[in-house]
Design brief:
By secondary structure, this protein is of the alpha+beta class. It is built from four helices and five strands. Helix content is 29%, strand content 17%. The strands form two sheets. It has a three-stranded antiparallel sheet with strand order 2-3-5, with no helix packed on it. The protein is elongated, with a radius of gyration of 28 Å.
Length: 182
């Protein structure tokens, strides 16, 4: 009986010691953050002036357009076949070209589901006609998931909601943030 009590109280003492070490660490870390100035990027308020997004960031897929505004896509379906999870669906039909008299594919609908996309860029690598690309537009939050299904052939992408976003946004500086201290 005495042996059981000894192990019980020794385990209880060990638990209290462990609790004290944890509390000491927590107070030390909390105190360090509490008494020093914080450096925080104020995203929603100052995103137009200080936010930097890498130009290589893959945010959403868009069609590249010719000078006359027409899209470069030929409905070859290489991007649809290379997509690993089927986020791209292409609907096309065969039509006769009035100039040459030959039949060719005509794009009816290019459906891209942004909500299912893995942003792997396999579709843009597979495109032989350089018709699609990823932009660094990242503000795609919506309340209804159906709004993430985009029809790229019907929309003309004019750029994101932030100025100079396609060029990377604000100038990037190492270690400098938009700071706000309380």
């Amino acid at each position: 009986m005495e042996d059981k009590n000894k192990t019980y109280f020794s385990e209880l003492g060990h638990a209290l010691k462990t609790l004290a070490v944890g509390m000491k660490t927590t107070i030390k870390e909390y105190g360090k953050d509490y008494w020093t100035n914080k450096s925080t990027e104020q995203y929603p308020e100052n995103r137009k002036t200080t936010l930097h997004v890498s130009a290589r960031h893959r945010g959403r897929l868009v069609f590249k357009r010719n000078e006359d505004g027409s899209y470069k896509c030929t409905a070859c379906t290489l991007c649809e076949k290379s997509c690993p999870n089927g986020t791209i669906k292409i609907v096309s039909h065969m039509a006769e070209d009035p100039e040459t008299g030959r039949k060719k594919k005509v794009l009816d609908d290019y459906r891209y589901d942004l909500g299912d996309c893995m942003f792997c860029q396999l579709c843009t690598n597979a495109c032989n006609f350089d018709a699609i690309e990823f932009t660094n537009d990242f503000e795609n939050a919506v309340f209804d998931r159906n709004q993430l299904v985009l029809h790229l052939d019907k929309e003309v992408y004019q750029g994101g909601s932030l100025p100079n976003l396609l060029d990377g946004g604000a100038e990037w500086q190492v270690g400098k943030f938009n700071t706000k201290t309380k």
